[in-house]
Design goal:
Layout lengths: L9 H23 L4 E2 L4 E2 L2 E7 L6 H17 L4 E5 L1 H7 L4 H9 L5 E6 L2 E4 L13 E11 L8 E10 L2 H16 L2 H7 L3 E2 L10 E2 L1 H20 L3 E2 L5 E3 H7 L1 H5 L7 E2 L4 E4 L4 H8 L11 E10 L15 E11 L4 H19 L5 E6 L12 H17 L4 E5 L8 E7 L5 E10 L1 H5 L4 E2 L5 E2 L2 E10 H11 L13 E5 L5 H13 L4 E3 L6 H10 L4 E5 L1 H6 L1 E6 L4 E6 H14 L2
Parallel strand pairs: 11-15, 17-18, 24-25, 24-26
Antiparallel strand pairs: 1-3, 2-3, 3-8, 4-5, 5-6, 7-8, 9-10, 12-14, 13-14, 15-16, 16-23, 17-19, 19-20, 20-23, 21-22, 26-27, 27-28
Helix pairs in contact: 1-2, 6-14
The protein binds one RNA strand of 77 nucleotides through strand 7, strand 8, helix 6, strand 16 and strand 20.
RNA sequence: GCCGGCGUAGCUCAGUCUGGUAGAGCAGUCGAUUCGUAAUCGACAGGUCAAGGGUUCGAUUCCCUUCGCUGGCUCCA
């Protein structure tokens, strides 16, 4: 006897509701589009989807009609009935459903599990709710294209996404949360706060950093560069282009060509924009004879590179075609790999801690053994590098998941994943163990024994690309950067024109103390100036009127609305400088 | 790259379905106001309706192409 729905844990109940709603939606689509072919429809985070092949594209208006049919099914409160048939029977039942037939052929056992409600039957493992009336609160969200079985060489189907929660209140809360998330979308705040912009004439994925955004970026770069300097890195500069031959040697041309901009023909050579910085750094390593005493050598650079991302994926700052990576390559002996790896992880933790990044996950990105042509062909290398990373993570006692097929072409990676406000996951930090490129470039060091040895390269990016980190931080702080990162740290607001002279003196003192300040000397009322400063998310508003002028003071209002009242100017300067130093 | 959706002033959006060359708020400029913790008042200015082509007596509106933005899919820092 199955357990009644209400006795199940909440997680299981919602899972069943989402799964069942997908069936109900498929039924509605089949009714409205006779002859529709349906593929798969699983529950997902926050809801469900179902993929269909239809005679015409779905419009947002179709969603209304589908929604209505679904509600009728829910009101009818049909029971979900489970039964099992053999393959032959299943093939007969789904004779006009090619996707289902393909699924049936792919199942090992002969027992086919079916779920029915009303007139609708689906090939499905379950489990489901008991009756259609139990599916909870849902809303059809969007239509999208999706490849059959996630393979871009297979036909593209139409996917309908739905949101579903057990209670209406939860659905409403989720919708409100999404609305809030939209307000912190870095593309929107980037425009409102004048951080970056784009222009058609420059091109997709090629953002322009405005003065305020550039200030934040420069501070980030200075921050990480200083951390690296303390951690024993040497910073270098290298050009953004090189001969194509360089990338033929490295293997990029073979494995990464599709992501590179087309070749530029010069008189006698072919040049390319670099898609990665490693070859340049390797040639710096190779520029002189190295001794084991020199290792590890840690070469770092804000490395700007160019990738010909497919047009459908670029957008905002998080996916661009010109990007600057907080890059470094550590050349070390095999014995030093683990220690260097844990040093990098410590650096990541320290950087994240200061930037206020607390939610992230570790992903061990491995090659896909079933698809080895995507990767450097040296099996022995992979068999050595992958366990090395796994062991290092275990020794550091850090939890991680493993992702098959996510490795770089030259080696496995440890990726650190963050989620944006809309819940999309992206790689930020990455640490890669590379035994491949040292061979390609035939680099070496002289060991204690006087013989040549092959170094290992650790590729690592700590705070990702400036673009992606900026996108993350804008959303993370909702544009309200902590004082040390704020492009404008304080704005001085004179109440009337007769206070401008004193306000200018306040500005001078603040600037002399190294603070980034602005003067609002517009002929507006103080309230309007406060409102504008508030919308610009400036951390401190320093208001000066007769009383402050008299006392060599400023009235301090914080971005969160707190009014600290009049304080002596020198005291405010100390307070701000202190807050900048502690980066909190 | 693929499947949808969208592109009207710097920004947010009316108007497009039912073709007759555009309107608001905010921002901007100018003037008045000189004000005590989230929007002072008034005037002015601002648009080859993304670009190109087609249909039409006539296209912002209908059709096609390109570009850009956007939600997904695939791919990735």
């Amino acid at each position: 006897m199955p357990q009644p729905l209400h006795e199940l844990p909440q997680e299981d109940r919602v899972y069943r509701m989402r799964h069942s709603a997908a069936h109900i939606m498929a039924e509605a689509v089949l009714e409205l589009f006779p002859g529709a072919k349906f593929a798969i429809g699983p529950p997902i985070e926050h809801g469900f989807y179902y993929d269909f092949e239809l005679s015409r594209p779905l419009t947002p208006e179709d969603l209304g009609a589908i929604d209505e049919r679904m509600r009728a099914t829910i009101a009818a409160d049909h029971p979900f009935v489970h039964r099992e048939v053999d393959k032959e029977e299943a093939r007969r039942l789904f004779a006009d459903q090619p996707f289902k037939l393909e699924l049936i052929d792919g199942i090992e056992v002969d027992q086919m599990s079916l779920y029915e409600h009303g007139e609708f039957t689906d090939l499905c493992e379950g489990p489901h709710v008991e009756r259609t009336g139990q599916v909870g609160a849902f809303k059809l969200a969007s239509v999208a294209g999706a490849y059959w079985r996630g393979d871009e060489h297979k036909p593209m189907l139409q996917r309908i996404y739905g949101l579903l929660f057990e209670k209406k209140k939860e659905l409403k809360a989720h919708l409100a949360m999404m609305e809030e998330a939209e307000k912190r979308d870095h593309r929107r705040l980037g425009r409102e706060l004048e951080l970056f912009t784009t222009h058609e004439l420059i091109g997709a994925g090629l953002p322009l950093w405005l003065p305020k955004g550039a200030t934040v970026r420069r501070l980030l770069e200075e921050f990480i560069t200083e951390l690296e300097r303390q951690a024993g890195y040497s910073h270098v500069y290298t050009p953004h282009i090189a001969k194509k031959d360089l990338y033929e040697l490295s293997g990029h041309w073979d494995h990464f060509k599709d992501d590179m901009f087309p070749v530029m023909e010069l008189e006698h050579e072919e040049m390319v924009l670099r898609p990665m910085n490693c070859p340049h750094h390797i040639l710096i390593y190779a520029s002189k004879l190295r001794s084991y005493r020199d290792l590890p050598i840690r070469l770092a650079e804000m490395g700007t590179m160019y990738r010909n991302e497919r047009s459908g994926v670029v957008g905002g700052l998080s996916r661009v075609r010109a990007m600057t990576l907080n890059d470094a390559h550590i050349f070390c002996t095999p014995e030093q790999v683990k220690a260097e790896f844990s040093n990098v992880m410590r650096l990541v933790e320290e950087a994240y801690d200061t930037l206020g990044i607390t939610e992230y996950s570790y992903q061990l990105s491995l090659r896909d053994p079933a698809n080895t042509e995507k990767y450097a062909p040296d099996d022995a290398m992979w068999e050595m590098a992958e366990p090395m990373l796994r062991e290092a993570m275990t020794e550091l006692d850090l939890p991680f998941t493993e992702a098959i097929g996510e490795a770089a072409f030259y080696g496995p990676k440890l990726d650190i994943q963050l989620r944006d406000t809309m819940g999309r996951e992206e790689t930020f930090s990455t640490v890669q163990i590379d035994f491949h490129l040292p061979n390609q470039f035939d680099i070496s060091y002289i060991g204690e024994d006087g013989a040549e040895h092959r170094p290992v390269i650790i590729h690592r990016g700590v705070i990702s690309t400036m673009e992606r980190m900026m996108a993350y931080l804008i959303e993370h702080y909702a544009g309200a950067f902590p004082l040390w990162l704020a492009p404008v740290q304080a704005i001085v607001i004179p109440i009337a024109d007769r206070h401008i002279e004193y306000a200018q003196k306040v500005i001078d003192d603040l600037q002399a103390a190294g603070l980034r300040v602005e003067l609002d000397d517009r002929g507006e009322r103080m309230q309007a100036k406060i409102r504008d400063a508030q919308l610009q998310k400036i951390p401190y508003m320093l208001i000066v009127g007769d009383r402050e002028q008299e006392a060599d003071a400023v009235a301090v209002r914080q971005r969160d609305g707190a009014n600290l009242g009049a304080l002596p100017l020198f005291q405010v300067i100390d307070r701000l400088k202190d807050e900048v130093t502690t980066k909190c």
